Amino acid sequence: MELERLRSQFSLLFKAMQLAAKAKAAVPLTSKSNSNIESLQLLLHTSWDWKSIVVNSRHREFQHIAGVTTLEFGIIEEYRMRLITSTPGALYLRSVLAGALKKEHRPGIFGAPTRDAKFRFADRIDLPAHDTLPTFSIEELLPRLEATQEWRSDEMAVQNLVKVIERCPLSWRDPSNEDDSKSPPLDPQVEAVLVQLVKVGTIFSNILL
Question: From which domain of life does this come (predicted)?
Answer without folding.
Answer: Eukaryota
